[in-house]
Design a protein that fits this description.
The protein is of the alpha/beta class. The chain is built from 17 helices and 21 strands. The longest helix has 16 residues, at about 180-195.
């Protein structure tokens, strides 16, 4: 049932009038938006539509070039984040801004740590953090655990716990579930509903259309910086929302292989990298997409990193291309030399060199084809090759020399794919490849993955979105409590089957 029913006379909390922002181009164009007290107001649109810019203005991070804002009937023009928070407007951003060496408790109460006799009161801090951590599903995490030891999904939950640590009137959530799995999402939604009943308003930004319809009271659609419409979530069909967002209808993503797999690409036997990865055995074949499901903390990311040589393995064998002899992969360079690529879940921190150009990000690990004697780079040949990849993958950019930081999330992900295809890697390990990507770009990424598999590549794809796995993958493996517990054919399993397997390691003891 979408959101919560609001009385017709629900007070207005926030109103924008004529909000406009220009950079190289106009990114917000005279936006008039109203948010009611206690409502969950969804804001949807493709990457580049202006959603994050609008959210950052409301949170005091940037200033508009024109227009004005009212909060509870009073003028609202925060000079910075701190002033916005003092007036009750807080934001959890899509791109996490964390200090890895802080503990979880310190991160939650950063800026208002409890003191006693001039020193931080750590016992009091941990006691205060515990209920907030329990609310967002971090009951199994110690308050004094360093934040840098947590995965992206759990860091996201710490950020949400921090936002809940102080009273607020409007909480802006930018892609809050991008790295969460079904149980964590349900827990977050429970907290949103509870806070909504207490009068807290939410501006909820997400590319996951099913979530939008479930949690929101009203939906506003942005396209090219303009607010097209605001309507009640009930009766606002997903097909119509998507059509308004992208300007065209999209087919349901249910992509099937054009030919059967043609031989083993990767065989993993008894792989372990404690404490997160305890045991994994499976086979990946050329020409298929093998999905990887599991709850947050189940060991999916750790397994991909262990295969790639980014984390040290304690046990297990990795065999490549049908060989019975184990491959030596002790470092990522060993994996790359043997045709294995990894697209990490955090593309900005661990994948891209943001200040550099699109061209440099594509060719940085394989410049040899463009090198002359003496090490000089043939710039024209390099540019031609990159332009071919950009055209083939449909990357939208002004030129190959544009900084990759200026591209949308979907186009950044395609640049990473171009890098590994340029390197001619035929075994692709993908960790949350559509995290934070809008519905149109998501469809294009799925199409490219299916195309890659049909061309003979082997793809292992971890995702917290079960619908995505069922729509794109040929088979789906499930990890639970650090173990590979089941493998399903996508045509004969359901989301319930996958979720039951994902929970199994936490409800029974494995041998």
């Amino acid at each position: 049932m979408p959101g919560m029913t609001r009385p017709a006379d629900t007070p207005l909390l926030l109103r924008t009038a004529g909000l406009t922002k220009d950079y190289a181009t106009r990114v917000l164009d005279s936006v008039d938006l109203e948010i009611l007290e206690g409502e969950v107001h969804a804001l949807v649109g493709e990457n580049g539509a202006g959603k994050s810019t609008l959210a950052r203005i409301l949170a005091g991070l940037i200033r508009p070039d024109a227009g004005h804002i009212e909060l509870a009937g009073e003028p609202y023009a925060p000079s910075g984040k701190r002033q916005a928070e003092a007036q009750g407007v807080r934001m959890v951003m899509q791109e996490l801004n964390v200090i890895g060496r802080l503990t979880v408790a310190e991160s939650i109460f950063f800026g208002h740590l409890p003191h006693r006799w001039g020193a931080i009161d750590y016992p009091g801090l941990h006691r205060a953090a515990r209920p907030l951590m329990d609310q967002v599903g971090l009951s199994d995490v110690a308050p004094d655990r360093p934040l840098e030891t947590l995965g992206v999904g759990r860091q996201q939950m710490v950020e949400i716990a921090a936002a809940l640590s102080r009273q607020c009137r409007l909480l802006i959530l930018d892609e809050p579930t991008a790295a969460l799995t079904a149980p964590e999402i349900e827990r977050l939604f429970d907290q949103i509903r509870r806070l909504g009943q207490q009068g807290v308003s939410f501006l909820y930004i997400s590319h996951r259309m099913e979530e939008i319809q479930r949690i929101s009271d009203r939906i506003s659609v942005l396209r090219d910086g303009r607010l097209l419409t605001t309507r009640g979530a009930a009766g606002f069909g997903l097909d119509e929302v998507v059509r308004l967002m992208v300007g065209r209808p999209l087919e349901e993503t249910r992509l099937a292989a054009s030919r059967p797999p043609n031989g083993p690409a990767l065989r993993v036997d008894g792989l372990a990298a404690p404490p997160a990865l305890r045991h994994a055995s499976f086979e990946l074949r050329f020409g298929e997409i093998l999905g990887l499901a599991g709850l947050m903390g189940a060991g999916r990311t750790e397994m991909l990193r262990a295969i790639f040589g980014a984390d040290r393995r304690a046990a297990g064998r990795i065999c490549l291309r049908g060989s019975s002899a184990p491959a030596r992969i002790d470092h990522p360079r060993d994996a790359v030399r043997q045709g294995i690529a990894l697209l990490t879940e955090d593309r900005k921190a661990q994948g891209l060199l943001l200040p550099l150009s699109v061209l440099a990000n594509v060719t940085l690990n394989h410049l040899r084809p463009f090198c002359r004697a003496g090490g000089r780079i043939q710039a024209a040949a390099e540019r031609r090759a990159v332009e071919q990849w950009l055209d083939q993958l449909g990357v939208r950019c002004r030129s190959p020399l544009q900084p990759v930081a200026e591209l949308s999330g979907g186009n950044q992900q395609k640049v990473l794919m171009a890098r590994w295809l340029h390197r001619n890697c035929d075994i692709l390990l993908l960790d949350e490849p559509t995290r934070g990507i809008d519905v149109g770009a998501r469809f294009e990424i799925h199409r490219l993955l299916r195309q890659g598999a049909d061309q003979g590549r082997a793809i292992l794809m971890a995702s917290s979105d079960l619908r995505e796995l069922l729509g794109v993958c040929d088979r789906i493996g499930v990890m639970s409590a650090g173990r590979w517990v089941a493998t399903f054919d996508r045509n004969t399993c359901s989301q319930d089957d996958l979720l039951h397997a994902a929970l199994s390691g936490y409800t029974r003891t494995h041998p």
